[in-house]
Amino acid sequence: MGAPLNTGFQMGTPVFKVDRDPDRCIQCGVCVNQCANEVHHMDSDSWMWTEDEKCVACQRCAVLCPTQAISIKDFPVIFRENSHWGSASIREIYRQAESGGVLLTGMGNPRPYKNYFDHLLLNASQVTNPSIDPLREPMELTTYLGNKGDLISQVEKPYLKLKIPIMFSAMSFGSVSLNVQKSLSAAAEEMGTFWNTGEGGLHQDLKEFGPCAFVQVASGRFGVHPGYLANSAAIEIKIGQGAKPGIGGHLPGEKVSEEVSLTRMIPAWSDAISPAPHHDIYSIEDLDQLIETLKVATGYSKPIAVKVAAVHNIGAIASGIVRAGADIVVIDGFRGSTGAAPMRIRDNVGIPIEIALAQVDSRLRDEGIRQQASLVAAGGIKNSADVIKAIALGADAVYIASAALVALGCHMCQMCFTGKCNWGLATTNPELSKRLNPEIGIQRAKNLLAAWGHEIQEMMGGMGINAIDSLRGNRLMLRGIGLNSQELDLLGIKSVGD
Amino acid sequence: MKVISIPEYCLGCGLCEIYCAAQHDGYNGNVLKAYKKGKPAPRSGLIKFSQMSWLNTCMHCDDAPCLNACISGAIKRDENGIIYIDENRCVKCYTCVMVCPYGHAQPSSESGRIIKCDLCRDSEGIPACVSHCPNAALKLVQGGAEQ
Questions:
Q1: CATH number of the domain that A167 lies in?
Q2: Size of interface A-B (CB pairs under 8 A)
Q3: Is the pLDDT of residue A152 over 70?
Q4: Interface touch B51/A431, C-beta < 8 Å
């Protein structure tokens, strides 16, 4: 074999086309200075030109252009029409033939699988019972997470009080910028809910937000020390993630800056590799030991959560987790997002959160252990109606991460893994991460929670329910539309009209 | 009142300059018209130095050297404390350029007369640079710099 050929020739055409309206462009150069992918260029004689093949359609230039001169379009597809070999499939093969590598991607599964939330409809009160106006009457969203125990127990178990049943899901410092964590942590504290450190430790600037944080203990054990466990609201053992069940994590060395290194307690510029399994957890009994260890380490003062990806047989897995002593079970559906995952894993592994949630809730009820743990649903929650539906299917609360990032400016280009996030979110590059001013981020994240809270109250009122507790697992409030009888059965709901 | 820069969150995008120019000289905030048809003249300039950037704008000093030094009475203070310039009275002596401790007052490349930040006093609302900064790196605060 000879040396690799150094040809720069690429088979594919650009995916996107940067359209610049010359009648509107004022050669101000904002697009040039804002594009971390170096798509836009301006020569010294003000000649503007673009490298379309580098564009990821993040919309940064289009949004900041003061004259709306830029629009990002699909590059006209030149492939012959083929319902089996779509342009994306062909381009992916070109990329792999050029690189010989695993295709990486970011954010959640974008494939057109059935979205069950969109096939659920809510009830409303008419005549036979009154609906409630949340503007005139109290409407309770307060939620408690933890082991509710049996009624005769004299020992009060640690629990969390949420003013709104929505928490910010795990995003580690390293996968997202510190400014993202600053925004979400402060927003969570002010709104009376919780955020999650992810598997990246707690940055020293965020110590004051420890009491409203889930601190994660994951397979790499990054940043875990006694102070980290003590300065938290709850501890979350991360077994798996919806975007990449069965897969570990890999933060490339280039992203392990001095700050990330100090927070994760690993050498700077070294790869941070989270193994696929916890090497001390090969069974439910092993999980039991880690849960007990963490409880002992924190003096039985904090609820312990266990997060798993929604996979086949999730009911039995969740039952084992509860029996192992977890106070909170987090189920992450296959739409859950990631900072980086192999594309084939993200797009083909796992099951929908709606079905997993219904199965887990039913299983735990059938086994009489539902009260021993709270259920948190994650992965693909897009709006407040999804939250309501998740709670009616059996969740105590939900986690949002993609929605929170979108609130902070994410435009879903799915290029988180490149570290070149033009919106300053999924990057540790200081030049890019400064693009999110936490003052703005806090406000926007708070607004999102407040808006969803109002909408949840409106929908509850319509159903004649004045406390979120009365909605939990109340699947009679749901009807399925466009679902077959087996799907209805798995979700434990009736069909519309029934 | 004055506009202050927060370099920690300044992106160096330059939109402040663009909207500043469009808010003055009768363009009424129309960027396209200012830059395609007119002669845009930003009052405040973005400074880029090493990895940092910030908008160099008027501090509207309580004891303003430019106001004290102006030989023709072109530089004035209005009832809100805003230091502004009556360009018709500017005689291009550039004394203000020399005495401004912030290097803010600058001659217009077009007329040679001095132009400077007037906090968009001729239009309603907060100054255009502040309202258009995409990262809240500019803030309108009370009080002028003490000299």
A1: 3.20.20.70
A2: 51
A3: no
A4: yes
